[in-house]
């Protein structure tokens, strides 16, 4: 998408777009309302990036098109216009060469493309910029966003080919419960689990100090834990250790994929609140993870030993090993792309915002996030204050946050959703009976407990040990809750969504993609979550 006079209108979902396709709100990855500047980067990046990535992967789809409505992202999956059977054959051949090398592909891209760009961006964030340099670097970032999301999909989408394990398992065993293969993929270390482990280790260290245990004993006030602990020698030592951890793992923010949210590296209070949770509970990350690995290995040995000795078994075992080797990729790509790219971009953009504050056209450097990219470039060329417009957009963002967005625009297609996309995004209509509703059976087991509806990270503090987490969706910053709750129910996502994948790591019963959980349930409700059948029973008495 070129930055022309129609740039802003091209971002928006128009009536003509709705006539051409079926647009579904992406409540799995971008369920929150977006700022104008972030939308300026994200909409073209995915729309144009997927077009290139899908061609390179010979996907049986043309692209994902993104548009903005009520401040939220809507996605149209554009069908492949050519010979679908021929395309599927090309796709299968392409996947055959990629699957054994998925982790290596990610590592190569991280080392050769992403990290060098981030180092350059870090340098630009710390030095004085001229107006001309700021414009040049902004356009460079805009172009890199498109490249980044092309590579994002080239890295992530091949992983969906491992769904073939389900089909092969069904053929080999005759069992209809094919999602059991995903239990054979739990216990694979990844960047999200690494982050949780580092914070648990800090909490374990802090437990040795009565001073720190006392400081974290009470819930955080508006002032926060940092103010409490930095008055003591032990607290300063903990903050120093935490700073070292956040240098590596601090690129998380409240909403993944945004410029406007401060990162953990900027404000350690987010991490301190997680450390407080770990201090207050009897939990050993290493012991629990080792047990997950043991159970996975035992399950895999049992399943493979029970398969008939036919050629298909060898194919299954080979693909299973490829899947196991690369299963951490889903969280790892999020760490290096989905989270790190906007976090690094944020610091550079704030630098540009400071430049505009110094020129007297912005009141605060963070006001830059409420400009569309074409406006920002124009402001750098001809400094013109837009104070009233920025304040109006801030209010619009708050209104959009409170809106219940339309789930879709346009006419649903008659053909069913692509199975691979359904595994990630979900999509089946809700099924509600008198005291039950269904979703996708994402993580096996049954659990009865008290509901806590979490709509935003600010609600984390109300979660108590053993509660049932009910939410729209989850992203990596939410994983701390997985060691506290007893089960998970989401509105959005399929069994390969973040919530489903991480629930299996923590051995939590999970039902995802219900569409209705946050509407039907409220804090204090008692529910039984059947993660094996994908059913939630509600209306029970405590």
Describe the structure.
- With 542 residues, the protein is an alpha+beta fold.
- 51% of the residues lie in helices and 11% in strands.
- It contains 20 helices and twelve strands.
- The strands form two sheets. An eight-stranded mixed beta sheet has the order 5-12-11-7-8-9-10-6, with helices on one face. A four-stranded antiparallel beta sheet has the order 2-3-1-4.
- A hairpin with a 4-residue loop joins strand 11 (526-530) and strand 12 (535-540).
- The protein is globular and about 75 Å long.
- It starts with 6 loop residues before the first helix and ends with a strand.
- The model has no long low-confidence stretch (mean pLDDT 91).
- InterPro entries: PEP-util_enz_mobile_dom (IPR008279), PEP_Utilizing_Enz (IPR051549), Phosphohistidine_dom_sf (IPR036637).
- This is PEP-utilizing enzyme.
- It comes from Paenibacillus baimaensis.
- Residues 463-534 form the PEP-utilising enzyme mobile domain.
Distance between the termini: 55 Å
Q: Can you summarize the main beta sheet? A: 8 strands, mixed
Mean pLDDT: 91
Large-scale geometry: globular
The strand line-up of the biggest sheet is 5-12-11-7-8-9-10-6
Radius of gyration: 24 Å
Which structural class fits the helix and strand makeup?
Answer: alpha+beta
Spans of at least 5 consecutive residues whose pLDDT stays below 50 are none
Total number of helices:
20
Helical residues, percent: 40-55%
Strand content: 5-15%
DSSP strand count: 12
